[in-house]
Amino acid sequence: MTEAVTSSAHAPSATRQDLLASLDPLLREWLPRQRWFAGKGRPVTGFSLVAAAEVLPFDANLGLLHLLVRAHQPPAQGGTAHPGDCYQLLLGVRETLPPRLAPALIGRPTEGPLAGRSVYEALHDPRPADVLLEAIRARARVGALRFEGDARQEIRDGLIPRLMTAEQSNSSVVYGDTFILKLLRRTVPGVNPDLELPLALARAGCARVPAPAGWILADLAGDTSVLGVLQPFVQGAADGWGLARGELAKGEDFSRGARALGRATAEVHTALAGALPTVTLGRGQMEVLAAGMTERLETAVQAVPSLRPYAPGLRSAFTALADLAGEGRTWTAQRIHGDLHLGQCLRSPSGEWTLIDFEGEPSKPLAERRMPQPPARDVAGMLRSFDYAAHSLTHTVPGWADACRAAYCSGYAEVAGRDPRTDPVLLRAYETDKAVYEVVYEARHRPDWLPVPMTAVRRLALSDAS
Ligand SMILES: Nc1ncnc2c1ncn2[C@@H]1O[C@H](COP(=O)(O)OP(=O)(O)O)[C@@H](O)[C@H]1O
Ligand SMILES: O=P(O)(O)O[C@H]1O[C@H](CO)[C@@H](O[C@H]2O[C@H](CO)[C@@H](O)[C@H](O)[C@H]2O)[C@H](O)[C@H]1O
Question: Taking burial as the number of CB atoms within 10 A of a residue's CB, which of 89, 155, 167, 274 is the most buried?
Fold first, then answer.
């Protein structure tokens, strides 16, 4: 198997174009239906091939084709022209598809090099999924693909792969409940925080984040893109979102869990501040930050008109922050998680919290996601999440979210030595920014959920941190 993954390379360009031409009609239909497709609502007008590698050359009724494909789409309304997002596709190729893989079928090309064969989503199939882990173990190189790993973590063979079925922005395969490989679907060249930050935390000895055991890179035109990260699987873990809602559904308090989560968040922040550069943000930078929040609000109001009546109140959260900066206040910024919510926190059966998914907001450029930011941004994300949990159930317990929010901040303060609530203007600005983001997110992806962030919008528009 190792031999197979190391022996192939880029297909010659004429063949690559044939390959893409034969897949084009299938992908036009299939790609926009995927949960992780970022360009929903705009037609795909064509594809170009960024890279192609036969990770498993077609033989004995099975092949694994690795493609990086750019999907061309017209710009979003009011947006500027864009070369199109690049997606990572792992395509299985078989002469005949066994019935168990029927749901994974993408289609059967009618012409070109794959004519008459079944092309399917390879991650559903244990055999090609196994080849990826083998390639990491073997530190293989296939065309532009580079499979690497941490020599100190043993990856034993024989781990049975299964594709995660959870709603995700990417795709993950669990190997024998020992490792989990996340394959990033929308790929961008450059250092990806989903690998960068867990590696930095592992080096700093922070055990709150699973230490990367392997990773998959692509070297393209002088730039490297991160395509996948393999991490230890937290066995028997439950995520904070399910746990918090479970307690609330039973009428139970979740403040002990929230306090422990606050401590875990502060541990990660402290480790990141020690491992990577921190900067001081003064008037200029904070005014830019507040202006960015205001701009996002204006865009959100255009996209979701029901925000309009609350816009002045929401805007005041951002002007209050700019005013404070104008008075000479400074803030320390550092690398943070960037998209922290209850769903990114896993509790092991022994009660330890782990934080996952350091990708940041995937829709933002890498440079922006990698910028140091005040840690209050992550704290605000978690505070929003407790509020989300409280409003996502039909019956609620009065004061439940407030108790969680207070406990989380207290736990954070116990470790960090500073309570996020002592900076209410910054916290309100970040909470408001997040709630506005959530309104747009829900309007686009889960319209039934829109009332949840809208409740917060009404509260935040009326609140005053001073
Ligand atoms: N190390 C891990 N151990 C156990 N489960 C994990 C681990 N990492 C991720 N998961 C599970 O996989 C899901 C998706 O992972 P995540 O990194 O959030 O992917 P995405 O960016 O695609 O949303 C998580 O919600 C969690 O249930
Ligand atoms: O997990 P992702 O990185 O894909 O984050 C996106 O989807 C989240 C929903 O799955 C969304 O989070 C919002 O809903 C959560 C409950 O489902 C809640 O815990 C969060 O607090 C709330 O923001 C997230 O905003 C979005 O970026």
Answer: 89
